[in-house]
Amino acid sequence: MNRRTRRIRRSGVTTLIAFSVLAGGSAALASTAAAAAPAVGTCTVKPADDGLSITISGSGWDPQVPLKIDGGEGLDSVAVSPEGTFSLKRFQKNTDFVILPQAENGPAFVPCKVLKADKQENSDKIRKARNDGFREGVKAGKAAAQENCKSDKPKPHRHHQGLTAEDAAVEEAFNQGFLAGATSAFDKFCHTGH
């Protein structure tokens, strides 16, 4: 009985060692295959403000792997720079594009992410700044009213010099929202009715 138990244990240990060696070899082969896979980059599509054209940009691509692009009208080749980037301008409104790396062990395709046009993005920033300003103004107006209703209504504290036109518009939207929120809260809590 004792010999049989040893034999079973030895057999089990031998089997475990064999599987460990095989698994280690498989892991080594898998890491070699992963290292051989080409760099997969990103792709974005951004409409122009006028809506007449789009810019398709990519980065992080392996310059040694040829790329094709498909926008539903057939495949075109994409020239990738030595830094792994590309940029194309198309005069169309379609924004559905995919990049097709021509590598054996890479992905079949990479969809391009659609971004907002600068004009739309700026409108969203201004809307967000106005809403943020209103919320901050309500807090400040409520605090000022709770402290003393005979004091002046709070004013926005933001005013920076040398801003870009876009940043100045965002700051102005915040200030307008702040004043509206502060006035609303101050009047509500002080019952001024103005």
Characterization of this structure:
With 194 residues, the chain is of the alpha+beta class. It has 3 domains: 1-36; 42-114, Immunoglobulin-like; 118-190. 47% of the residues lie in helices and 17% in strands. It has 3 helices and 8 strands. Strands 5-2-1-8 form a 4-stranded mixed β-sheet, with no helix packed on it. It has a 4-stranded antiparallel β-sheet with strand order 4-3-6-7, with no helix packed on it. Strand 3 (67-70) and strand 4 form a beta hairpin. It starts with a helix and ends with a helix. Mean pLDDT is 76; it is low at 6-35.
Q: What fraction of the residues are assigned to beta strands by DSSP?
A: 15-25%
Q: How would you name the CATH homologous superfamily of the largest domain?
A: Immunoglobulins
Q: What integer value in Å does the Rg equal?
A: 31 Å
Instruction: Characterize the largest beta sheet: strand count, sense, and whether it forms a barrel.
Output: 4 strands, mixed
Question: Which whole number gives the mean pLDDT?
Answer: 76
CATH architecture term of the largest domain? Sandwich
Indicate the percent of residues in helices.
40-55%
Distinct helical segment count: 3
Q: Looking across the biggest beta sheet, what order are the strands in?
A: 5-2-1-8
Following the backbone from N to C, one meets helices and strands in this order, namely HEEEEEEEEHH
Uncertain runs with pLDDT below 50, 5 residues or more? 6-35
* General shape: rod-shaped
Class by helix and strand content? alpha+beta
How far the N terminus sits from the C terminus, by CA atoms, comes to 99 Å
CATH topology-level name of the largest domain: Immunoglobulin-like
**Total beta strand runs:** 8
Query: How many structural units, i.e. domains?
Result: 3
Highest-level CATH class of the largest domain = Mainly Beta
